[in-house]
Design brief:
The complex is a heterodimer of chains A (354) and B (164). Chain A is an alpha+beta fold and 354 residues long. In chain A, 27% of the residues lie in helices and 26% in strands. With 164 residues, chain B is mainly alpha-helical. Chain B has two domains: 81 residues, RNA polymerase sigma factor, region 2, helix turn helix motif (Rna Polymerase Sigma Factor, Chain: A, Orthogonal Bundle), CATH 1.10.1740.10; 74 residues, Orthogonal Bundle (Arc Repressor Mutant, subunit A). In chain B, helix 2 packs parallel to helix 4. Chain B is elongated and about 55 Å long. Classes of the chains: A alpha+beta (354), B mainly alpha (164). Chains A and B meet through helix 1 and helix 2 of A and helix 1, helix 2, helix 3, helix 4 and helix 6 of B.
Chain lengths: 354, 164
């Protein structure tokens, strides 16, 4: 019957493919067309240059909006230091809210998380900036006033999420175009918490209810030996949280050598996987980076065995500063280059991440 | 870590169009399978826009062009699918029981597979992707694709026999 299933699938697939219309031709105008946005009138000429270059702004933040999740839509294996390094004078884009400092200065930033549940609707405090922020330059009062979408609350003027394109200069973003960041449905879960093990014979088992205590013991083991493990996470082999779950333990080094010991602690669905770095190694890097820059934020991801580094902008000087730690990093800057510079295209062979 | 990154450096969209053209069929079929009822052409065009914008992030030493383009297409299809969530959400086994009329209707049985198994079946049997390309779409190892396919075939066997 299994062979029959194979044959039935192949036949059904062939029938389905034969019924499909021919694929579309690439729409060249769409490749080079920006989405509707608005520009600072005084800087419109500069914007035209970008449009004819066929470049579309890409958002970069890491909270809830679509644009913020955009980096995840490119598989991580294609990320590289070169793709995020911003050189002086480079064309860049960044997504965040704008905050009017009230002194003729406007900052683009990732909003700081603030609870709003305690406040009546409309009386929430105005947003404030997280350390992921960059000052906008080159804007006159008229330019600032021309940006649509300003809201004022409790004396603070701010906008919703915007993607700003422009030029990076002297630590600031010379803004040339503003575009509303569009929503997206892409979820981070699909990109994270992989299950790198094949199912055992008979498949993954449903939960029996006895796993909780064993899981706590497994967590204790992992926490007690940060030099051995990157951590543990839960994976869903069928992609559905209501399906059987599998506990994955990331082992720095020989996973097979730990398999029996960990199975002795946790008898449920267990996947022991090799990862390149332990939590202790990741933690050392994270501490070094945050000690070097107070506006850098780090997050240790046990499933990818990487440190996510979030920072306002990643410059060639930062690239030198992180040195060999680059191998452990996923860099998520607020400001990203729209196109890599020629220097980056010939980057040294050790700079590709992941 | 890779050695020197080999990137796309098309300045002319027409060059880029020539480069992606051999893969358009698979991209369109993948979009149609992952987001049934959605505008397939729009998904493909949006994927091409994303690929064009990110073309310098592509490293040919780390994956086939098709795998890269298909992974981007899958992301766009997922977005489109969520916009149509109520109509097309993939479900586990919550659908109605199969009837005798479904016995040989493999497509209807495929719809009753768990989401990951259905995705693997869609990619390999319907879209016509290789295991490596499917692994890129599913963001997993090739071995996981093979085991997921084996599980799917076993489950289909049960579904089809039960309904016989």
């Amino acid at each position: 019957m299994t062979d029959d299933v194979e044959r039935l699938l192949q036949e059904a697939g062939a029938r389905w493919r034969a019924a499909q219309p021919p694929p579309p031709e690439p729409d060249l105008s769409r490749l080079t067309q920006r989405r509707p946005g608005w520009r600072v009138p005084a800087l419109a000429a500069a914007s035209v240059a970008l449009i004819t270059g066929g470049l579309v702004g890409v958002g970069v933040l890491s909270t809830d909006s679509d644009q913020q999740e955009e980096p995840a839509s490119t598989p991580p294996i294609f990320d590289s230091l070169a793709a995020v390094t911003v050189h002086e004078g480079a064309a860049v884009s960044a997504t965040g809210i704008l905050l009017d400092q009230g002194t003729g200065s406007v900052v683009l930033c990732e909003p700081a998380p603030e609870p709003s549940i305690m406040y009546p609707a409309g009386q929430e405090p105005p947003p404030s900036c997280s350390p992921l922020a960059i000052e906008l330059a080159g804007l006159s009062e008229e330019d600032i006033a021309a940006i649509p979408g300003w809201t004022e609350r409790q004396g603070v003027r701010f906008t919703g999420l915007l993607t700003v394109t422009g030029t990076f200069s002297d630590g600031r973003l010379e803004a040339e175009e503003f575009q509303e960041a569009e929503p997206s449905g892409l979820t981070v879960e699909e990109e994270r918490f992989p299950l790198p093990c094949d199912p055992p014979e008979g498949g993954w088992r449903p939960a029996t209810g006895d796993e909780e205590a064993q899981r706590a013991a497994l967590q204790e083991e992992v926490d007690a030996h940060p030099e051995l493990y990157s951590g543990l996470w839960v994976a869903y082999p069928e992609g559905d949280p209501t399906s059987p779950e599998v506990i994955v333990v990331g082992v720095a080094g020989n996973a097979a050598a730990r398999q029996a010991q960990l199975q002795g602690i946790y008898a449920g669905n267990l996947c022991v996987a090799s990862v390149p770095y332990s939590y202790a190694e990741l933690s050392d890097v994270a501490e070094r980076l945050t000690a070097a820059h107070t506006d850098w934020q780090t997050e240790i991801q046990p499933d990818t065995a990487t440190v996510v580094l979030r920072l306002p902008v990643f410059t060639p000087a930062d690239r030198e500063l992180i040195g060999d730690d680059a191998a452990l990093l996923t860099i998520e800057p607020l400001v990203r280059p729209i196109a890599s510079s020629s220097e980056d295209l010939t980057a040294d062979p050790t700079t590709t991440l992941n | 870590m890779s050695t020197v990154q080999e990137q796309l450096d098309f300045a002319d969209p027409r060059q880029f169009a020539d480069w992606v053209r051999p893969h358009l069929g698979a991209m369109a079929r993948l979009a149609a399978r992952l987001a049934p009822g959605a505008d397939t052409e729009d998904i493909v065009q949006e994927a091409l826009v994303r690929a064009w914008v990110k073309r310098r992030q592509y490293d040919r030493q780390r994956g086939m062009p098709s795998a890269w383009l298909l992974a981007i297409t899958a992301d766009q299809a997922r977005k489109a699918r969520r916009r149509r969530r109520t109509a097309i959400e993939l479900v586990d086994t919550a659908g109605p029981a199969l009837t005798a009329d479904d016995r040989l209707d493999v497509e209807r049985a495929v719809e009753r597979l768990p989401a990951r198994q259905r995705l693997a079946v869609d990619c390999v049997y319907f879209v016509g992707l290789s295991v490596a390309e499917t692994a890129a779409v599913m963001r997993c190892a090739e071995g996981t694709v093979k085991s997921t396919l084996a599980d799917a075939r076993a489950r289909l066997r049960t579904l089809l026999e039960v309904s016989a």
